[in-house]
Specification:
2 domains; five-stranded parallel β-sheet
Length: about 325
């Protein structure tokens, strides 16, 4: 219940699997809250029972109700109440509801504080073995269309480690799309059931892990950690590489070159004519191979001419 402390919104992280990860200060804040905003009242109710907390009130605040709840929450905090915000698992606002509520409270000039704790993205990142100095949490990919192609293209060119969330039923398709866009040799780690009894991390190339995901029944919460992209080869435009990556994703969905070019041009803001030229042109590796073949042909021609000249010289000495 409220005491002499001023009203505030308290963003409380909750366990991502193991209930033993609920910190003592989280229990204290949930116990003193006048209202607990949560994604699922039944799930949060079970968490409170586990923590021995009797909450004075629970309010559902999910992706569909968050905006509508903001006014009431702001009014309560203005009146001096303390409102706790939790989600089903992890830290509110990180690929979960909460960010809009935080912005509304801040816009009203009211206090926001936090009880930090578990974040699935960070847990998977440190288990991946990839660079942790610079990383980006990319959340869930768009389900389809040009938005998905554009995001895949961004990931193909992303130099930082990237962390994605994905539903088990869509994991195999997402890994295939990443493989086709980023290349089969890009490294990836897929973490599932983090902090639970059946915690598991698959590590390997996109080609290897995509095959593994396609061959089994994936269950539980999934986090995908993608190793950063290698620098673009000398002489290769990084922006063009991003366009090519988006084109590979679009073509992988069965689109013809013209339609793929139109979609990618609209998504990335590039002229359609330039994108179409990249769609029908050779990949940089193929261009290099063509150049090498041409160099070999020139060398063979020069060698043949040299042999011919030498033969004529020998023939001349015999006359």
């Amino acid at each position: 219940m409220s005491d002499s402390a001023p009203g505030a919104l308290v963003v409380v992280a909750t366990p991502i699997g193991n209930l033993g990860d609920l910190p003592p200060r989280a229990v204290d804040e949930l116990a003193r809250a006048d209202l607990v905003c949560c994604e699922d009242t039944r799930r949060t109710g079970r968490l409170l029972v586990h923590a021995g907390v009797t909450a004075p009130g629970l309010r559902r605040v999910d992706a569909h109700t968050e905006e509508g709840a903001a006014g009431d929450v702001v009014a309560r905090i203005t009146a001096g109440q303390r409102v706790a915000l939790v989600t089903d698992a992890g830290t509110p606002g990180v690929s979960d509801p909460g960010a809009r509520l935080v912005r509304a409270v801040l816009a009203a000039g009211l206090a926001v504080t936090t009880v930090p704790g578990p974040v699935a993205a960070v847990a998977a990142l440190v288990l991946s073995g990839f660079d942790t100095a610079r990383f980006a949490v990319d959340g869930f990919l768009p389900r389809k269309g040009s938005d998905r192609s554009a995001r895949l293209a961004e990931l193909a060119a992303e130099r930082r480690t990237a962390v994605l969330y994905e539903a088990p039923s869509r994991l195999a398709r997402t890994l295939v799309d990443l493989r086709d866009t980023c290349g089969p040799d890009r490294r990836v780690a897929v973490a599932r059931e983090l902090t639970k009894r059946h915690e598991e991390v698959w590590r390997g190339t996109l080609a290897e892990v995509a095959t593994k995901a396609d061959s089994g029944d994936v269950r539980g919460e999934v986090v995908v950690v993608l190793d950063g992209a290698a620098p673009a080869p000398p002489g290769v435009d990084a922006d063009d590489e991003a366009v090519r990556a988006a084109l590979r994703a679009a073509r992988g969905r069965g689109l013809a070159p013209g339609r793929a070019a139109a979609e990618v041009a609209a998504a990335l803001g590039r002229p359609r004519k330039e994108v179409y030229a990249l769609a029908v042109g050779p990949e940089p590796d193929e261009e290099d191979a063509d150049d090498e073949d041409a160099d070999d042909e020139d060398a063979d021609a020069e060698h043949a001419e040299g042999q011919h000249d030498a033969a004529e010289g020998r023939g001349g000495s015999r006359t």
